[in-house]
Predict the 3D structure of the following.
Amino acid sequence: MEKALPSRYLGSAAVTVVATLLAKALSVVLNPTDAVMIYLAASVFVAARFGRGPSVLFSALSCASYNFFFVEPLYTFEMYNRSSWLTLLVMLITSMVISGQAISLRRQERLTRESTVAAENERIKNLLLSSVSHDLRTPLASITGASSSLMQDDMPEGTVKELARSIHQEAARLSRIVSNLLDITRIESGAVALNRQPYYIDELIGAALSQVPEGAHTVETRVEKDLALVYVDGLLIEQVLVNLLENAVKYAPQNSAITLTAVARGDEIIVSVADAGPGIAPGDEKRIFEKFTRRARDKSGSGLGLAICEGIIRAHQSRIWAENRPEGGARFSFTLPVAVKVSEEPPHG
Amino acid sequence: MAETQKISVLAIEDEPEIRKFLAAALVSNGFSPAFALTGREGLAHLKARVPEILILDLGLPDMDGLEIIKSLRGWSDIPVIILSARGQEQDKIAALELGADDYLTKPFSTGELLARLKAALRRARRAVAPAAGTFTAHGLSFDAQNRAVKVDGNEIRLTPTEFRLLALLVKHAGKIVTHKQLLQEVWGKSSAENNHYLRIYTQHLRQKLGDDPLHPRFIITAPGVGYKLNA
């Protein structure tokens, strides 16, 4: 961070004082001209740290201090010797040149840094665009194709049903992608205001389970007894659970069990969703929470589900992580804060 | 449909494509739909002739849909189904508190729409029927007069607060009752912010009814909104 200008000038003056004290202290063992070296070293520091203006000030102050404290007659701004003038002049010029170099080095470094950030932003933007346009175009193409076929005359009944079904399916997919995009944008821009309330986690799990069609899977729930109330945005945590369950359903092999557990750990509750699928490629445990990351077999997802989970959990100042289970398959876990102890018994028992 | 008389429904919806699909779905399922394109037009229609059920889009161009519910409730109790966009959670809650019966989040399918309409109509008819104060569904029977609650024929003993909570859910069976409504009616006005009372008592009530919150049979959780008794 750049400091305010006045404090940078003050800093520069302070360095002059320190350099002078140091040089004076060492003057017992060093030649007076060696003090010049100390000032020059300090000038590099000032230039790198405080920039051009303060650096010019330092050059002037250090020359004056050198003259005052180290050139005969001491403690005056006068000089007996011509060579002292030369020393002073060389010191001034060298100090200015060094500052100039240090400053341009500093600017170059900043530019490089900025351009790296800009390039990274550009790369993310392109990735987003290409991913989104592909994700949106595919269902749109199916919908356009199927609906234009429906407009033709003499379609056999069976075909009409099938086309209508495919339009419905693809529109649902499109709707999911758009919702996910809006969610991730809202979460990333920090526009999500949490509506935190106390909840029992089993209620939220129940609400999430009712939204996920189990299909050929069974969801086994193991929720510890008498868990404390958690203090969360119920709707958003329900969404995290739904995303994790849908993810598990997608990867778990047919007829395998998905396990959902909730246990207390100190003043947190840890919720996990585990599947018996192929697991996560080693080294990908963090990357899968990034936007537009799909696991190998996934073609249908928007690559945003886990990023949304991560964003929601982060907004709760909690943690989410993924790991492979020793017995095979992936396990996704997140923590939730327990509600601050509330008054024991409500009124009117 | 079994009924010979078609059910009159008014839909206040400004999007022509949504109107088109509503019309097709309603007509082919035994409803007689009328449409209003703006809130003003809808209110005028409602004042002239009250339909049996109202479908109301919250995002109208000329006025807030909530205003329509507020003024409609001045003269009619017909069921109101809200159509809302995703993310309008606060509007949904406000609509429920003003007396809307249910909501559908766009996009929705014909099947969902018809299910909601039928459930709301069923509720409306039950409310008019003389058996008020009693309720039976999914093995739960509730009798307000005798303060009797049974699950699968077994008597359940409830505390006064648990009973009030269940009675309120029964009164609105099949409809989401918001957290605020539950807190205010069961614990009184000053408790509107004390959500944990509600959690703790709902948990007690569920335990006594043998209702597993993970797979609820009676009390359905709507996170961030409220609870609903399965009707």
Q: What stands out?
A: Chain A has a mean pLDDT of 84.
